[in-house]
Design a protein that fits this description.
Layout: H1 2-7, H2 12-27, H3 31-49, H4 54-70, H5 73-90, H6 94-98, H7 101-110, H8 114-124, H9 133-149, H10 153-169
Length: 172
């Protein structure tokens, strides 16, 4: 609201403030508020830029994550498909797409596709070390969820222990 008052119109600065607030709300567990704000951020970004760029991809990926965290698997898959379309339209490099794979694994598990989630996690295993500690923890935690959903609670527990170990050692 303050940024809108300062800018007197919808600008990139307003969208950035909205996005930062949506991120903070999501991290604080206020998922309904975060989702409402990320929807507004996505719409404003699209009006201002056309949406086919790194920021548009990141916003849509955030929306997919929020849906997954809310347990809305279908919504998460829908936004993940949009992420893929935006990435293809922008000519995004594969290396950038790897940064989002923890969200993809979580979305697939949340949407009731744990076997696909595990396949994706296995395919991305060689790239795990290149991710930040936080992204590695998220990826392994999502894998643990998928393992549990496929009826492998012991394997899931082992994955959780690995994620906790990374979190304890790293900067999470």
């Amino acid at each position: 609201a303050d940024q809108r008052a300062l800018d007197a119109e919808e600008t990139t600065r307003v969208r950035i403030a909205m996005t930062l607030l949506a991120n903070a709300l999501q991290l604080g567990g206020h998922l309904d508020e975060a989702q409402a704000l990320v929807v507004q951020s996505e719409a404003l970004h699209e009006r201002l830029t056309g949406g086919v760029n790194d920021e548009g991809i990141a916003l849509t990926n955030r929306h997919s994550l929020i849906c997954a965290l809310r347990g809305d698997g279908e919504g998460a898959l829908r936004h993940l498909a949009r992420v893929d379309a935006l990435a293809a339209a922008s000519g995004e490099a594969d290396a950038l797409g790897r940064d989002r794979f923890p969200v993809r694994v979580l979305v697939l598990a949340t949407a009731g596709q744990p076997a696909q989630a595990l396949d994706h996690a296995a395919a991305m295993e060689p790239h795990l070390a290149s991710l930040s500690d936080t992204a590695r923890v998220r990826a392994i935690r999502a894998r643990a969820l998928a393992l549990r959903l496929t009826g492998s609670p012991e394997s899931g527990r082992s994955a959780v222990e690995a994620a906790l170990s990374i979190a304890a050692e790293g900067g999470c």
